[in-house]
Structures are given as structure tokens and as C-alpha cells.
Amino acid sequence: MIYRSPLDDIDIPDLPVTDYVLGEAEARAGHTALVDAGTGERITYADLASRVRRAAGALAGLGV
After folding, report:
1. Cα–Cα distance for residue pair 19/42, rounded to 1 Å
2. How wide is the angle at C-alpha 18 spanned by C-alphas 15 and 24, nearest 5°?
3. Region 18-40: what's the mean pLDDT?
4. First-to-last CA distance in the chain?
């Protein structure tokens, strides 16, 4: 079953998701990117980009 939003469709550029999400990370380095609803921990764009790079490196090291 396909679910549709009552809101208008949005344009999503033809980019890898990391480029789309983190493309402006450097310019927003000190701004909050994510908030953990359970703990209230805030992750900045700089922290998010770093964590994504580390996770990608770990996966690549495992051959994924």
C-alpha cells in the first residue's frame, strides 16, 4: 500500500543522502543537527559529519 502525505510533494535532488544531509554541515558546524528525545543529548552538524565518516570507515574496514 502506498501512503501519501496531504502536503505538497517536495523536490529531492539526485544526490547521495550523505551529500544531501551533510552538504552544509561545515557551514553549520556549531548548530544542532539532532536531539535525542530520550536523553536530550544534542549533536552538532560537525559531530554528525564526524560520526558518519567514522561509521563509514568502520563499515569499509569490515568490507561492507
Report:
1. 21
2. 90
3. 93
4. 31
